[in-house]
Automatic annotation (TrEMBL):
Annotated source species: Camelimonas lactis
Lineage of the species this protein comes from: Bacteria, Pseudomonadati, Pseudomonadota, Alphaproteobacteria, Hyphomicrobiales
GO molecular function: medium-chain fatty acid-CoA ligase activity
Entry protein name: 3-methylmercaptopropionyl-CoA ligase
Pfam families: AMP-binding, AMP-binding_C
PANTHER family: ACYL-COA SYNTHETASE, MEDIUM-CHAIN ACYL-COA LIGASE ACSF2, MITOCHONDRIAL
Length: 510
């Protein structure tokens, strides 16, 4: 049976037209569901009639958080087009690869990132561009909303979004997100967090990230709640919004570093958290001592686990278990199957560490233009997450370590192969390896272990300068270690467990 896709903004505009959908904190603009419905319709008309966007075409967005990015997402839905949010932290070279792969019809961008967006669009021969603010508003004013009869006939199986995530080979992969995946994530996360019309969520993560877009912006809009859009995370402003109760903020989601920055802010001890009904955390392991700090302030942070490829929710703690099960990622969400598998493909026993596999309507059908990755990532419909996991006797899951070498810095996945490729561009370097090491501020950061060629000279500053020119800041190694040789196993591969044993010191209390 084919399940049709229905537009949530249009639905709530019909039932509760004056209810607020989005507030843009940067300039105070407020968007009711009726106003947002009208604007989405006008944008869909402009994209279709004036910019030639048809079903299946991609529309890329490079912008800081803004309501307009959400309008692009929903306008693409009405056209059957595919929304491609771009990471604002990437360099022109990195974005050029992604945009070249996605081949969007339109590059939408804000004024702040206009130079980067237009340079990438020119390099990739993107046919059209559209800038937020004045040009965007003029385009909407010049057309009438696309009539309902002209909306595309879209099903849950159709791709709505392509979200790029770094690959273990160093090349980003475009995870295809269907309308059905997003819908089931709304159901799955909504059930755990009690999302409803009364939900008021503060968005602090970037909308190009699945944690920003889907935890819990889309679930909140699906339920008819209110999203407060913060252009970029500001700890002081976040604490003030939680404290003053002006908007009735009751839901916050962030990666561990967000909560770390909040509890280190001088206003933390003075903030009234009584209105914060849900504090969700994911994207990286949460240190137990940090969980306890928030628990002492009356906020039991609900940990969870997910991936871009799973839309993203897979595991989540119920609020009642948040304190007693600190350190666990919880149990599977409603419409999801999970298992922990040994390397030989057999089911791991309780307490035994294996790789987490996921199956269900929330799992990606595959990667854009990557049949090789599709073949290696799935077994009989099960997605291999690449994360080492164990389950206790009560059915609670614990993410133990990365099955692969990826590490997470400030909620962003970093794959060493990509950074190593950049290091090897330096003529002075004979060998290089990247490992993730504990970082009090970002959770983890990169350590570059480097072997210099005989007769060559190389400084830490030179390595940092080289990386900053070619990589997003979160991918650049924080520290450099010079050694005479890298440890290797019997097959000649660099043995990273040995490097971790040499350089990684576990933080106290974890």
């Amino acid at each position: 049976m084919t399940v049709r896709y229905y537009d949530w903004i249009a639905h709530h505009a019909m039932r509760t037209p004056e209810r607020l959908a989005v507030v843009n904190l940067a300039d105070g603009r407020e968007f009711s569901y009726a106003r947002m419905h009208d604007r989405v319709g006008r944008l869909a008309a402009h994209l279709s009639v004036n910019l030639g966007v048809n079903a299946g075409d991609r529309v890329a967005v490079l912008a800081q958080n803004a309501p307009e990015t959400l309008e692009v997402q929903f306008a693409c839905g009405r056209l059957g087009a595919i929304f491609v949010p771009l990471n604002t932290r990437l360099t022109v070279a990195e974005l050029t690869y992604i945009v070249g792969d996605a081949a969007p019809r339109v590059m939408v961008h804000d004024a702040e990132l206009a130079a980067t967006a237009l340079e990438v669009a020119a390099a990739c021969q993107t046919p059209a561009s559209l800038q937020f603010d004045a040009p965007y508003e003029a385009a909407l004013a010049a057309v009438q909303p696309l009539p309902r009869a002209a909306w595309a006939d879209v099903s849950h199986d159709d791709v709505s979004t392509i979200m790029y995530t770094s690959g273990t080979t160093g090349r980003p992969k475009g995870a295809m997100i269907t309308h059905g995946m997003t819908f089931f994530n709304c159901v799955n996360l909504g059930a755990v967090a009690g999302v409803s019309q009364s939900t008021v969520q503060l968005l602090v993560l970037p909308l190009f990230h699945t944690g920003g877009l889907n935890c819990y912006v889309n679930p909140t809009l699906h339920a008819g709640g209110l999203v407060l859009v913060m252009r970029a995370f500001d700890p002081g402003a976040t604490l003030r919004l939680i404290h003053d109760k002006a908007f009735g903020l009751n839901l916050l989601f962030g990666v561990p570093s967000i909560y770390q920055f909040l509890c280190q802010h001088p206003d933390f001890d003075k903030t009234d958290f009584s209105g914060l009904r849900v504090g969700g955390v994911g994207g990286a392991p949460m240190p137990v001592p940090l969980l306890r700090i928030w628990e002492q302030r009356g906020v039991a942070l609900q940990q969870g686990y997910g991936m871009t490829e799973t839309s993203p929710a897979v595991l989540a703690l119920d609020q009642a278990d948040a304190a007693a099960r600190a350190g666990s990622a919880g149990k599977p969400v409603l419409h999801t199957e999970v298992c922990v598998m040994r390397e030989d493909g057999t089911l791991a026993a309780p307490g035994e560490i294996g790789e987490l596999w996921v199956r269900g309507p929330n799992v990606t059908p595959g990667y854009w233009n990557r049949p090789d990755a599709n073949a290696s990532s799935f077994t009989d419909g099960w997605l291999h997450t690449g994360d080492a996991t164990r389950v206790d006797a009560d059915g609670f899951f614990y993410i133990v370590d990365r099955w692969k070498d990826m590490y997470i810095s400030g909620g962003e996945n970093v794959y060493p192969a990509e950074v190593e490729d950049v290091l090897y561009q330096m003529p002075q370097i004979a060998e290089a390896a990247i490992i993730g090491v504990p970082d009090e501020r970002w959770g983890e950061s990169g350590l570059a272990v480097v072997v210099v060629k005989p007769g060559q000279q190389l400084s830490e500053d030179q390595v940092h300068e080289h990386c900053r020119a070619r990589l997003a800041r979160f991918k650049c190694p924080r520290d450099i270690a010079f050694v005479e040789a890298l440890p290797r196993n019997a097959t000649g591969k660099v043995h990273k467990p040995t490097l971790r044993g040499q350089f990684v010191t576990e933080p106290e209390g974890v």
